[in-house]
Amino acid sequence: MSQQYQHLNSVERAQISLLHLEGCSGREIAQRIGRNPGTISRELRRGQDDDQGYCPTAATKASQARRVYSRRRRKLSPDAALYETVRRGLLYRCWSPEQIAGRLRRMHPEDPEKRVSHETIYAAIYAHPKGALRREMIEALRQQRSKRGPRRHRTLASSPMVPDELRIRHRPEEIEGRLAPGHWEGDFIKGAFNRSAVGTLVERKTRYVVLCRMRGCEATAALDSLTRQMRHMPACVRETMTHDRGSEMAPHAELSKRLNMTIWFADPHAPWQRGSNENTNGLLRQFLPKSTDLSQVTQTQLKDITDLMNNRPRKALDFKTPNEVMAEESNQFAESVALAS
Q1: What Rg do the C-alpha atoms of the chain give, in angstroms?
Q2: Strand locations in the chain (E)
Q3: Do residues 12 and 35 make contact, with C-beta atoms less than 8 angstroms apart?
Q4: Rounded-to-integer distance, Cα 278 and Cα 319, Å
Q5: 227-283: pLDDT as tens digits
Q6: How far apart (Å, rounded) are the C-alpha atoms in residues 263 and 193?
Q7: Calpha distance 202→180 (Å, rounded)
């Protein structure tokens, strides 16, 4: 069996110094103290003092300095250059570790020293000493877990039926491919005790988010809020809407007429058919927890939240932001219209 290597200690260095002064060779010293001749040779070479030859004190200091230098430096220690960048992304921009890592990779593709993986960010957060800063960093994460673990899954409640001709199975196939903007997914997130709600809409291609303040949870409130907010969007990006089956969407025919959009309905218990919207609703809970009375949230506050959401780099967009992609699509549409005219 091979023995585990151990560094020379101060006693062995003193023995080496005495035997070396007596004129012993490196191989003889190795035999006397039970060490490998190569270890002794390197030690005598590294521990040389200009005035005294081999000096055990100088050799010990040099060894300690080499060990400190050889340690791998942590990229996210508080004194590291990337630490403050990651901290600002978590606390002030409300980005996830994956979004921060992806954005850094996009900004510095040729410089690995200016990048960090999302796993390194998570490790730095959860390995941080206990205290106020640790709580602050964990609270900045969307799930706010004290330790990492598997996600919990929830079951959706049943929804009322809708006309067969508006079921998602009749939706044109080109919408599924996210090839063009203008196709939205919608739902409502509920507040405390299901007594308040906010309408959520996300554009399938650009992941652009629109939030709609509602004056209540009934259908008329949903109709007014969705109409009011979606009319701010250009007509060129108002093509279709795929929505959850909820009683709030009872006046869907009137909403379709007001916005000049075709409205489709997902199947019951099939949240994956509105995957972008379901994901967005999960992200929104970071700002609007289930215990919140959403009736007290103003449209201005919702606008601030959408600004944060739409300026987050998204992995699905190659770490561009929804605002950037929506601007690109709008410019392309304007150019195509100019060429056609």
Answers
A1: 31
A2: 48-49, 53-54, 183-190, 197-203, 209-213, 240-243, 262-265
A3: yes
A4: 20
A5: 999 999 999 899 999 998 888 899 999 999 999 999 999 988 888 899 999 999 999
A6: 28
A7: 14
CA within 13 Å, CB half, 72: 3
Of these ranges, 42-46, 64-68, 119-123, 261-265, the one predicted with the greatest mean pLDDT is 261-265
The residues facing 189 across adjacent strands are 198
Cα distance between residue 111 and residue 4, in whole Å? 37
Q: What is the dihedral of CA 275, 276, 282, 287, to 10 degrees?
A: -170
Q: Are 185 and 243 in contact (CB under 8 A)?
A: yes
Locus of tokens 């009749």 = 170
Give the pLDDT score at 259. Answer: 95
Residue with tokens 């709609």: 212
Partners of 242 in the beta sheet? 185, 264
Distances in whole angstroms, Cα of residue 309 to Cα of each of 84, 224, 225, 286, 322:
21, 23, 20, 11, 8
**Would you state the pLDDT for residue 2?**
46
265 φ, ψ to 5°? -125, 130
The residue among 243, 217, 218 whose CA lies nearest residue 230 is 243
112-169 per-position pLDDT tens digit: 888 888 888 887 777 665 545 556 666 667 555 555 555 444 433 344 557 888 999 8
Distance (Å, whole) CA 164 – CA 64: 76
